[in-house]
Amino acid sequence: MRFDQLLHPTPKGLYCPSGDFHIDPVAPVERALITHGHADHARAGHTHVWATQQTLDIMAIRYGDNHCREALAAPWRETFEVNGVTVGFWPAGHVLGSAQILVEHNGTRIVASGDYKRRADPSCQSFEPVACDVFITEATFALPVFRHPGTAGEIAKLLASVEQFPERSHIVGVYALGKAQRVIRHIRRAGYDKPLYIHGSLQKLCDYYETQGYVMGDLRHATLEKDKKGGFAGAIVLGPPSAMTDNWARRFPDPITCFASGWMQVRQRAKQRGVELPLVLSDHCDWDELLDTILELSPKEVWVTHGRDDALVRWCDLNMITAKPLHLVGYEEEAE
Ligand SMILES: [Zn+2]
Ligand SMILES: [Zn+2]
Do 262 and 308 share a domain, yes or no? Predict the structure, then answer.
């Protein structure tokens, strides 16, 4: 069986004809297998959805319980059948509940990793390598210039600034799913136990992480009456990127704008967003981690999804690894 007979790209996403299902479809389908809860991978409107319980919970939080007709919880690290094809879900290390999906049929094994990262994240399960013939990888940061610095160092930068400017507030831009909770967990790990103030749009997911055993510490709503403006002096406030430029952010005293994203290693992007204190913190692999993963798995073929596919495919070519870009559309590189 040729590998692309088992799984191949279609306008709606990766499709498995033998099992008549899609992985992370970008349009409503009959059977959807979902890697994780980010909006470009997990969409509402499918008939049957297979995902980890945590991804299903996150989808229900974001879209309501009726986001699909039937939600089926996939167990971790156990294969089962979808329409006659063997599938399995293994941790991807990207955000809480995120999974790589194994598709196995007639002796061929393909792993669709969705989004993934290799470094330790105190807010989710760690990536687990799964042996396969074909490894499907993202390529968000697939350029040799992308090398993410150590996370503890980035958090230390934030806490040092907070200490240095006790009369100012620090407003940290974080994506609501994953980045927010990871930043909070790292801040706690660094020994900061004062209240952290969060924008209302982060509340539900932070609460959910707490129910899953990821302790967030003292979180408070970042709402304030005008006369209490001084109350946020020295505070760390977390909000979604969209709130950083609106009136919400201007309510805090003399704010220092921070933003936690892998893109912050691109000076120009930080500048465009008016970010004073960029925190380079990514939920995707950097260049070295992508290469290490491919070398570790040593698959027969590498298929590259969204991001900088050309550089990664070229590296594979130079290293005698068969590789091709899938040119999947509908996945965002900005929202991590
Ligand atoms: Zn993602
Ligand atoms: Zn993605």
Answer: no
* Residue pLDDT, tens place only, 3-22: 999 999 999 999 999 999 99
Q: How far is the CA of 233 from the centre of ligand 2 (A)?
A: 36
Do 46 and 95 share a domain, yes or no?
A: yes
Question: Residue 265 above 90 pLDDT?
Answer: yes
| DSSP per position, 195-212 | -EEE-GGGHHHHHHHHHT
Which tens digits make up the pLDDT trace of 242-261? 998 888 888 888 999 999 99
Does residue 335 belong to any structural domain of this protein?
A: no
For residue 73, being part of any structural domain is answered with yes
How far away, in angstroms, is 38 Cα from ligand 1 center?
A: 5
Does residue 222 lie within any of the structural domains?
yes
Q: How far is the CA of 166 from the centre of ligand 1 (A)?
A: 35
Question: In terms of DSSP H, where are the helices of the chain?
Answer: 3-6, 53-63, 151-164, 179-189, 203-211, 247-250, 267-272, 287-297, 309-318
| Ligand 2 centroid from CA 155, angstroms | 24
Instruction: Indicate yes or no: pTM above 0.85.
Output: yes
List the domain range (segments joined by +) for residue 61.
Answer: 3-145+284-325
Ligand 1 centroid to residue 120 C-alpha, Å: 16
Contact 14, 35 (CB under 8 A): no
Token duo for residue 13 = 């996403």
- Report how far ligand 1's centroid is from the alpha carbon of 276 (Å): 25
Q: The CATH number of the domain where 30 resides is what? A: 3.60.15.10
pLDDT digits (tens, 9 = 90+) for 45-72: 999 999 999 999 999 999 999 999 999 9
Q: How many domains does the chain have?
A: 2
- Ligand 2 centroid to Cα of residue 96, in Å, is 14
